[in-house]
Amino acid sequence: MPPYNSGLGGIVDLFPRERNGRDELAGMRDMVASLPVAIAYLAGRDHVFEFVNEEFRQLIGGRDVLGLSAREALPELAGSGRFELMDIVLESGRPVRGHEAGLSLRRFDGDPEQVFVDFIYQPVRNAEGTPAGLWLFTADVTANVRDRLGGSALAAQLIETEERYRTLFQTLPEGVIYYAADGLIMEANPAAREILGIDMEKILTWPLPTASHAVHEDGSPFKPEELPIKVALRTGNVVVDAVMGVQHARTDEQRWLRITAVPDARDADGRPQRAYAMFRDLTDERRVAAALREGAELMGRLRDANVLGVGLVGEDDGLREANDAYLDIIGYTRDDLAAGRIDRRTLSLPQYRAVEDDAMAQLRRSGACRPFEKEYLHRDGHRVPVLIGAATVSRKPLRWVSFVVDLTARQRAERERAEILARERVARSEADNDRERLTFLLRAGSLVAAAQDRHELLERACQVVVDSLADFCMVFLPDGDGLRATAIAYRDPARGTLSVDLSDQTVPATHRAAVATAYATGTSQVVGDVSAWMAHRSEASPMLGDILAGLETETVLAAPLMVDRRPLGVLAVGRSPRRPDFGETDIAVIEELSRRVGVGLANADTFARDHSVAETLQRSVLPDALPSIAGLDLAVRYIPGTDDIDVGGDWYDAFPLDDGQVGLVIGDVVGHSITSASIMGQVRNLLRAYAIDQPDPSDVLARTNGALSRLLPEAMATAVYAVLDLANGDLRYANAGHPPPVCSTGDDHIEYLDDAIGTMLGAESGGAFTVGHRRLAVGARLLFYTDGLIERRRQDIAEGFSALADAMRAAGGLSAERTCAAVQRELLSGITRTDDVCLLAARLTR
After folding, report:
1. pLDDT in tens, 608-653
2. In which region does residue 175 sit, left (phi positive, over 0), alpha (psi from -120 to 50) or beta (all else)?
3. Which residues contact 817 (CB under 8 A, 6 or more apart)?
4. 184 backbone dihedrals φ, ψ, rounded to 5°
5. Is residue 77 within 8 Å of 83, Cβ to Cβ?
């Protein structure tokens, strides 16, 4: 926009440069009043206003300035240089012009306002030719200046905005595709091409190649008219947050997208001519969510198992929930928990405030904190050493789960170890070999602790004694009314330390008095005359007799295996003449080893007893035998876990129904305990009872879920219930959060029956369950299983599903029994399992 020409120059030419008297100024009023510019006459060195026209009066906000100096009349111009410019004009006698000068004027008693003016200061001389005053001609050009500046700024802003949006479009992490109404893709940003795996030259028309494989969250395919961009173009409405699964063009991997489609560029009838599709890749988020769910289930199992303390803490530091192990550690009851009498401040000691503050900072920053040691203040006042770790379950409001391990036993063990080390320091002054014996005790304790059962425990104990302290070692355990040797280790000059299991050997009651006295009194016995010890070796088996005959024993030490002041057996240790007799340090070391072996025996017995009780309970609530049903070949397997004393709530069931139908069930109660096995029996009976009365599988699960929520509100379980019609092969099934059954047909087609959806039993009282349907031909095989078959630590569950499918395919047309055997062999052989496994196989034979 060109600068505005105010035309002041022509107006100035009308005014005289000399002033001959006041009458001359008065005579010009009429002419000045009609001019379209602001005019004022200022007289003298003080620039006193002697004349202003109405235009000038409006410019300065209607102020009456006649008789006032410029500095008095317009004080807001002080410091702007205007008054100094007037002084220069009077001193030099030369006019001054200005264009679009900015002024800050107070107008009509308001705040100062910026205006722009064109001006001329024209000096007026007196009769002597000396400047006596000046004409001030001013034109207000504010509007023109603002229009010109505003237009330029707007154009620059539009260019900058367009560049900014272009940069944003190209760098957005979300995918954006711009469609025309005829299906032509006008533009796609780099993120869209990367998310979909489609090269630029292939993004030409709609639908995209990946759209033909698009599926809903339930796995059903998108119809063409259901695609979000088409809905937006057809209806003119925004489609918000539609979730779609698509196939990545380069990797064929299924990716999950959240899509928003926005109509754009509407015609005169309001129909959109273009539309944007904006989408974000949810695949990693869904995987994380699945991992979180798995972690939550694991956390629940840890809580229910009471192996370690688990507590839920709120942002106010109050303890919201805790398992029994946590409450036992701190000495409070569930009544205290319900009443809100437990919080983090109650349990904490001042000296741990800094480490707790650091842990809280880690929680807020990363969602977890590194495990750290501190002490809890027990309700009775004593301190409990603990190891604590924590992870957040929500950030707003902040809540976290604390995992607590009681370190009392560890500290007790550390004190015991310290005592042993102290004895070592004392013994070092007595003999140089005491250090070796103390080291032996520590090594022996580690070996004993690592033993898996009593046989391995006794064998290792005998071996470490012979390796370091003696020439032979025997263990005697109660057998009927007496004691019987069950294990021996001895030193063979040619082959080193050898071990023999004596459980099937005839062992003489050697030196009954010493062994019996050690067992009866709980005190160690040293035998110096070993002739009686070896007198009965002829009663032993030939192999054991040869071993005893080869031993050159001179001294024997019999030490009781003690636990809680109760003898469990006797450890007999012998030395040849080449070694010194047993001294006090030797006896103390052997007694300490015997005490640890006794504790190990007690633990092994407890482990075996608890595992047997739990397994017996679980087997007792499982069917004794499967029903014999014409036309259906059935087989089952129950395989207990190998790495845990507890068993789970896995169960199976099969029973005939009316009209030639058969009910097939597989399930798993959450948790691993005797309680879980007990609840399993109740859930099994509930489901069986409803199955007799309800033909629809979803109704059976719904009623079982309702009963479980009311009768056993703390219990949860997964289950699959299927009804097979033997007459036509019709299979109907419903699933309550359980791994889907797998079906194999005669043509080696393997299919997971994963189209029936439902929540876990007990998760919510009003849970809904859908029904899946298949028509099976003669020879088709079904396998129902629990999660222990396919789940492994540090292994994606998809690998478990794939391995099971391969095993079913390799089994071919085998019977149900051989199918179970093949699956067990392929997936469970030679691995350590922490979970039980149930298998239920069915083959349609007619």
Report:
1. 665 555 555 555 555 667 888 999 999 998 888 765 545 668 889 9
2. beta
3. 633, 635, 841
4. -70, 130
5. yes
